[in-house]
Design brief:
By secondary structure, this protein is mainly alpha-helical. It is built from 14 helices and five strands. The structure holds adenosine-5'-tetraphosphate.
């Protein structure tokens, strides 16, 4: 059976890239799949252990999920640290993953920067925890933005190695599923015009929570004025928009704004250019502001409303965590049997 898992870190400043690349697609998948959506608070502490207000940030991501249309009654929404299996399985995966594999992770290199000696061990081991998040539920499909592609490949490598290393134990206990072995080989779901939303200030950098410039991103909590100002100030070039997609090559900022428009309006860049080809950026930006306010305004307003009742959000997370734990505990018991760890 197909099962979707994905997560978002509660590191503050949830933005349009997180929405178009991930959350909006989470919403769509609810119609066709069983879905588990996790606020990955254990991941959030890998870059900086001491966050301004981790609990509030966790509630904010939960509010964004619900405000965007995720239904925590029909699917599972919870925060990672409430289900012990994530950390337990991550430890085992730390022992499956090879140093050489983790050394190739570009996100670690980017996030650790020049002072690598000072990066936390958690930041380095992040991809093994991510593999644990996914495989704890034997998820078959993971919707993510383009930036997570490499981590998903590592998840597949970990599943393959575990399945191979323990093939006899898996078969002996009858825990295997079909030809694959114990863990599924997860498929990434990456795509669409907004799989990689770029910074509004620099079309070569991805839109990111940690960019020091607030003008680089549209936050889900921005009001209409804030969205308008940021779009108006977004970097562009002096040429009008081309009529065909080929004309966007080497025009990173133009390509980004067209991709955002296509993402928000559920069309393709080609369709957007059919409508706006030949237009100046001033006109196109005005339409983009209207569209962004129309799509994001209600989400921001609903998030603000939900955030006024933290007790309700915590109850949603607790309910999701108990349902997630029921699945997770079974996987952990089986994995312990497979590895040979004595359990109660
Ligand atoms: N710019 C982006 N375009 C498309 N998708 C994106 N995602 C992130 N940035 C973009 C997707 O959002 C989901 C949640 O991301 P995360 O919370 O795990 O954090 P991240 O990938 O590290 O992204 P951020 O927001 O840019 O944070 P920082 O600044 O800490 O690096 C993921 O599915 C991600 O692909």
């Amino acid at each position: 059976k197909e099962l979707v898992f994905s997560g978002v870190q509660p590191t503050g400043n949830l933005h349009l890239g997180n929405y178009l690349g991930a959350v909006r697609r989470f919403v769509a998948l609810q119609e066709t799949h069983d879905c588990i959506y996790c606020v990955v608070d254990l991941h959030a502490i890998t870059a900086t252990l001491s966050q301004p207000d981790l609990a509030a940030q966790t509630r904010e991501v939960t509010a964004a999920f619900i405000a965007s249309g995720i239904d925590p009654a029909r699917h599972i929404v919870f925060n990672q640290s409430q289900v012990a299996g994530h950390a337990e399985l991550a430890w085992i995966f730390n022992c499956v993953a090879r140093l050489g594999w983790l050394n190739r992770m570009t996100q670690f290199k980017e996030k650790a920067g020049k002072d690598r000696e000072n990066a936390s061990v958690g930041l380095y081991a992040y991809p093994a925890l991510m593999a644990a998040d996914i495989l704890l539920y034997k998820a078959t499909h993971v919707p993510v933005g383009e930036d997570q592609k490499q981590h998903l490949e590592l998840t597949r490598d970990i599943a393959i190695k575990f399945n191979n290393d323990f093939s006899e134990q898996i078969a002996a206990r009858g825990y295997g599923v079909g030809e694959t072995g114990y863990f599924p080989i997860t498929e990434p779901l990456i795509g669409g015009p907004a799989a990689r939303v770029m910074s509004l200030r620099d079309g070569t950098k991805k839109m990111s929570k940690s960019d020091p410039s607030d003008y680089s991103r549209i936050n889900l909590t921005d009001d209409a004025d804030g969205i308008a100002q940021k779009v108006r100030k977004a970097k562009t070039d002096p040429e009008p928009l081309p009529s065909e997609e080929a004309g966007l090559e080497k025009r990173a900022e133009a390509q980004n704004l067209v991709g955002i428009y296509a993402g928000l309006s559920d069309t393709t860049p080609a369709e957007v250019l059919r409508q706006f080809g030949g237009a100046q950026f001033s006109g196109f930006k005005a339409s983009l502001v209207d569209l962004a306010v129309e799509k994001l305004g209600p989400i921001g307003a609903e998030m603000a409303r939900l955030m006024k009742d933290p007790g309700h959000i915590d109850a949603v997370l607790a309910d999701g965590a108990s349902r997630a734990s029921a699945i997770a505990e079974r996987t952990i018991a089986e994995v312990k049997d497979i590895v040979g760890l004595i359990r109660r």
